[in-house]
Amino acid sequence: MQQKKVSVLWLLVLLFGACSQDNDTTVPRNLQEYVDVNATLSSAEVIACAASDKTLTSTSLIFYYPIDGASDIRYYETDSVQQDETNLSLYKRKMLPKQSVFGGHLEKFIRTGNKETWCLVTYKTLGKLHKSNPIRLKNFTKPTEWKDTVRVSYPQTLQPKFSWDDGSIAENDIYFQAITDADDNFLSGTYTTDKWFQFYHLDNVILNITTATPPSLILDNEYNFTVMGVSTDHWVNLVLEKTFIAE
After folding, report:
1. Which of 141, 119, 149, 148 is nearest to 234 (CA)?
2. CB proximity list for 212: less than 8 A, separation 6 or greater
């Protein structure tokens, strides 16, 4: 009888170990293995970038845009920036807390740590596996500047024009602009290569993540404008935040 109990115990241990190995929330797997497992899905992109926190340089914020239907959202990173960022087998999954941004239209992973690495974000939609470009974390070598130096003018009533300058790190390749109301409800999200944007003119917009035509601004209401200056390696060098009153 004692021998049978010991045999059953060992069987349970082996089964538990097998289940643990199959659960990559417990035992991290590399990204290439995850891509191989999902080889039947077509490839698609994730819009993502990263910035250092406003007050804590050791904290990195990895922003991404989860399109409708996004599920199984994951964060991966390499062990160091010296590794080949194109080699997916070098990326290991990390479990990080995340928060909504701009009323939930965007989201962000919150990463704490001194080491700079390459990272990226993945998620699934129906029939597709989405993967971002590699993001170079630079929270110590080039911490993000957070300012409010945005100029607001009104060439047309209730259609403000925003303009800005680069910060001390002039390596920005593209600029993301977001407008929210006083309750943080998302109104519009656009990308330009110019250092200006007018609401809601799309002449110089090269990418638009606004899901529908935004409502007109309301006279004397308060709104928030945010712009991110992003480098070619998807690091945010500059974040500008400005509250304005519609005129």
Report:
1. 119
2. none
pTM of the model: 0.88
**Mean pLDDT, to the nearest integer, of 169-194?**
97
Rounded Cα gap, residues 87 and 39, in angstroms: 17
Which helix (H) or strand (E) segment holds residue 20: the answer is helix 2-22
Q: Is 207 in contact with 191 (CB distance < 8 Å)?
A: yes
Confidence of residue 18 (pLDDT cuts 50, 70, 90): very low
pLDDT tier, 29 (very low <50, low <70, confident <90, very high otherwise): confident
145-245: CATH class: mainly beta
CA distance 148 to 162: 12
Taking Cα atoms as reference points, which of 144, 143, 59, 55 lies closest to residue 109? Answer: 59
Residues 197-214 as b/e (b if ≥16 CB within 10 A, e otherwise) read bbbbeeeebeeebbeeee
For residue 152, pLDDT beyond 80: yes
Domain positions in the chain? 28-136, 145-245
For domain 28-136, the question of CATH label 2.60.40 is answered with yes
pLDDT at 7: 43
Domains 28-136 and 145-245 share a fold: yes
Tell whether the model's pLDDT for residue 24 goes beyond 90. Answer: no
Beta partners for residue 121, in sequence order: 75
